[in-house]
């Protein structure tokens, strides 16, 4: 069977939907009831926008002749309802975010130039979302090459589709599946030279050949997130968003493969602050501090030298004791 | 005949007791954290060691402020004022006594009097531990609880790594001090007399 590109895209969306489902099983954050049956706007969405945008095939009726024509929806304009209703934005009406112009069909030209909301527009300076530190994420993004080199064309949406967004890093316990899905986000553009044409007319080569200098390329790709090397670490946010130009990426082995790494320090700082924000100082930091990791900051030299120093002190005390036993002090002097 | 001096008032004995107990907990849990293996706990389980270490560290800070206040507001503080004049010579005399004179039955070069509680070696080591090592342990320990105040990088090293290592090095110095402190305490009039002193408050000259 030969699958065309559109079918592959839909297949990818469906696979991703099932992966999202499985990720929710191992959800480590507070469970929230979601779903079309819980949404106040599901019927409205279903009877309007999703009639066409909710599936691959949509139909157009000529109101004069009554002729019906079926067409394929562009892959970029499809919203898979199940995935939408299990995302963080599940409870919204389409028109909460999209302009009123979309009520008219065919959609007027100006809807094509609709400005998308960015995350900070809704979540910035809101105490309810303070723990996610959207302001710092936005500041990092504004410094990132995604923003500076594209005049903002690469917006939040390009990586985080708001229709399907779920906080991946907070919902999984890490591991290869999380790394794979994190890297998929980058590869959607950087693994596709045609998509890269959005920002560059030249044929941009795909991402993998540029990493051949790495020893064990495949293992690095499986075990390391792209952003681990390509973003500037920020102690205060869970995921760093300051994507650096390619030539500034981490290329030194010791930056990751050492106990004295910035990455290690950043993870510790973040975990400690997050735990304190969530559970308070006593419960989150003093009593239950998961930011300490066995051996994370261990220096073999200091561990060894410390024991040696202690051993030598004990040895001197033992010799002294031996002398005290063998050579009884001739007299004990009192004042 | 030996004389007795009331050198350890009640507040000092209470502080010393809490200090000793907390330090022992901190040392045991500190070693557990430093030498634990993911598959094998050393003395206590890693996560419990972290919690107990943090709680004891906070309590020790509180107990230390009581000690500091006692030294500021009572006469006890004078024992921690080191006179630098002739210090090297006094230290040498005391070391020579422990290594040689003690066995030959010589008189202690700096016997306990009403005005002098510590010999020069004790004085310099207590000052080092109480006014340098412990405060630095508190600073580094609290910094690890509030890591946002730690420099990201210092001299090319991760700030957290350096803070952690400094904390561990100071911890080792305190362990070595504690061992010597206990050992030297057995060199009083009798091996147990100094231990009796810190319970009753009365110290015998030797």
Account of the protein in words:
The complex is a heterodimer of chains A (335) and B (206). Among the domains of chain A are: 1-107, no CATH class; 123-224 and 234-242, no CATH class. With 335 residues, chain A is mainly α. Chain A is elongated. Chain A has helices at 5-25, 42-47, 49-53, 81-85, 94-97, 119-123, 134-143, 145-148, 156-159, 168-171, 176-190, 217-223, 226-230, 262-287, 300-326; strands at residues 57-61, 68-72, 231-232, 242-243. Chain B is mainly alpha-helical and 206 residues long. Chain B has a single domain, classed as Up-down Bundle (Fumarate Reductase Cytochrome B subunit), CATH 1.20.950.20. Chain B contains six helices and four strands; from the N terminus they run E-H-H-H-H-E-E-H-H-E. Chain B has helices at 10-35, 46-73, 87-101, 120-145, 159-185, 193-200; strands at 4-6, 153-154, 157-158, 202-204. Chain B has a two-stranded antiparallel sheet. At the A-B interface, helix 14 and helix 15 of A face helix 1, helix 2, strand 3 and helix 5 of B.
Brief rundown of the structure:
The complex is a heterodimer of chains A (335) and B (206). With 335 residues, chain A is mainly alpha-helical.
**What's the helical proportion of residues of chain A?**
40-55%
At CATH level 2, the architecture of chain B is Up-down Bundle
Strand order of the largest sheet of chain B: 1-4
Q: What overall geometry of chain A do the principal axes of the alpha carbons give?
A: elongated
In sequence order, what are the helices and strands of chain A, one letter per element?
A: HHHEEHHHHHHHHHHEEHH
Low-pLDDT ranges of chain B: none
**Share of β-strand residues of chain B:** under 5%
């Amino acid at each position: 069977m030969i699958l065309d590109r559109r079918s592959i895209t839909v297949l990818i969306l469906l696979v991703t939907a099932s992966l999202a489902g499985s990720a929710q099983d191992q959800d480590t954050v507070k469970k929230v009831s979601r779903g079309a049956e819980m949404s106040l706007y599901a019927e409205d969405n279903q009877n309007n926008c999703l009639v066409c945008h909710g599936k691959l095939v949509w139909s157009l009726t000529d109101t004069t002749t009554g002729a019906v024509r079926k067409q394929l929806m562009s892959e970029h304009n499809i919203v898979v309802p199940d995935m939408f209703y299990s995302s963080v934005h599940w409870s919204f009406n389409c028109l909460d975010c999209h302009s009123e112009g979309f009520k008219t069909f065919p959609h007027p030209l100006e809807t094509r130039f609709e400005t998308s909301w960015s995350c900070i527009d809704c979540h910035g300076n809101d105490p309810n979302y303070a723990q996610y530190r959207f302001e710092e994420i936005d500041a990092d993004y504004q410094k990132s090459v995604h923003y500076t080199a594209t005049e903002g064309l690469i917006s939040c949406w390009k990586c985080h589709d708001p229709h399907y967004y779920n906080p991946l890093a907070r919902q999984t316990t890490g591991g290869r599946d999380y790394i794979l899905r994190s890297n998929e986000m980058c590869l959607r553009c950087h693994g596709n030279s045609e998509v890269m044409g959005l920002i560059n007319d030249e044929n941009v080569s795909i991402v993998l050949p540029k990493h051949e200098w790495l020893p064990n390329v495949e293992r690095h790709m499986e075990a390391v997130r792209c952003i681990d090397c390509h973003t500037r670490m920020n102690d205060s946010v869970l995921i760093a968003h300051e994507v650096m130009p390619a030539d500034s990426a981490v290329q030194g082995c010791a930056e990751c493969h050492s106990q004295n790494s910035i990455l290690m320090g950043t993870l510790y700082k973040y975990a400690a602050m997050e735990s304190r924000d969530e559970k308070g100082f006593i419960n989150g930091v003093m009593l239950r501090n998961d930011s300490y990791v066995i051996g994370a900051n261990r220096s073999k030299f200091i561990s060894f030298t410390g024991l040696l120093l202690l051993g030598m002190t004990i040895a001197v005390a033992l010799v002294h004791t031996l002398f005290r036993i063998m050579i009884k002090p001739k007299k004990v002097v009192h004042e | 005949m030996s004389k007795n001096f009331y050198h350890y008032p009640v507040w000092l004995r209470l502080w010393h007791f809490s200090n000793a107990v907390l330090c022992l907990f901190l040392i045991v849990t500190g070693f557990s954290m430093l030498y634990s293996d993911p598959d094998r706990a050393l003395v206590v389980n890693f996560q419990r060691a972290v919690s107990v270490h943090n709680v004891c560290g906070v309590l020790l800070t509180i107990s230390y402020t009581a000690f500091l206040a006692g030294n500021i507001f009572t006469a006890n503080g004078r024992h921690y004022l080191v006179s630098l004049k002739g210090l090297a010579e006094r230290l040498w005399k005391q070391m020579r006594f422990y290594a040689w004179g003690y066995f030959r039955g010589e008189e202690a070069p700096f016997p306990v009097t009403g005005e002098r509680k510590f010999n020069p070696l004790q004085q310099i080591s207590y000052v080092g531990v109480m006014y340098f090592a412990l405060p630095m342990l508190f600073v580094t320990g609290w910094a690890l609880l509030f890591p946002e105040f730690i420099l990201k990088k210092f001299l090319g090293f991760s700030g957290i790594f350096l803070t952690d290592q400094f904390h561990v090095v100071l911890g080792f110095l305190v362990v070595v001090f504690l061992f010597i402190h206990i050992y030297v305490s057995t060199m009083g009039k009798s091996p147990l007399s100094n231990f009796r002193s810190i319970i009753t408050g009365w110290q015998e000259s030797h």
